[in-house]
Design brief:
The protein has 132 residues and is mainly alpha-helical. The protein contains 6 helices and 4 strands. The chain has a two-stranded parallel ribbon with strand order 1-2. A two-stranded antiparallel ribbon has the order 3-4. The longest helix is centred in the first third of the chain and has 10 residues, at 25-34. The chain binds a DNA duplex (13 and 13 nucleotides) through residues 6, 8, 13-14, 24-26, 43-45, 48-49, 53-66, 76, 79-82, 86-92.
Amino acid sequence: MAKEKPISKNKLPAILPGGKKEISFFEQVYDVARCIPKGRVTSYGAIAAFLGTKMSARMVGWAMNGSFKIKPKVPAHRVVNRNGMLSGKAHFSPPEKMQQLLEKEGITIKDDQIINFAEKFWDPSKELSLDQ
DNA sequence: TTGTTGACCTCTT
DNA sequence: CAAGAGGCCAACA
C-alpha cells in the first residue's frame, strides 16, 4: 500500500491519476515552474531549495525533460541554471526556441546567457507561498 | 533485478 | 583561484 506504482508505462513521470493528493517531487517542480511569471526566470537550484533540498537540483532538470509531455505545458524555457545560462536549450525543439521565448518576454540573452539575470530572477521561496 | 545516466548544485582539496 | 568529487531522485538499458 505504501508503495507507489511507477507509471513509466504511460510515459507520465509525475502526473498521477485524478484523486491522488500525494504530490511527487516532479509535480512540485511542475507546479512551481508553472507559477513563474512572464518575463521572469528561475534556477533549478531555487526550485529544488523551495522543495526542501538543494541537492535535488538535478531532479528539477530531469522533471523539465517531461514538462513537454505533461499538461498544462510547463514553461521550461524560464528555468535556467545557476549561472543564468540556457543549459537546457539544447533539449528544446528547436534549441533556439528557448532563447526566442525568453527574448519575446523581454529577457535579454547573449551567448546563451541571460543578461541582468539577478533582476529577472524569480525566487519561488519568496514569491510563492508555502500555504498555497 | 541492478547499474548507469541525467536540462544541476555545493563542498572540499 | 581552479578543478574534482559527492549527492539527490527518477527513468532507462
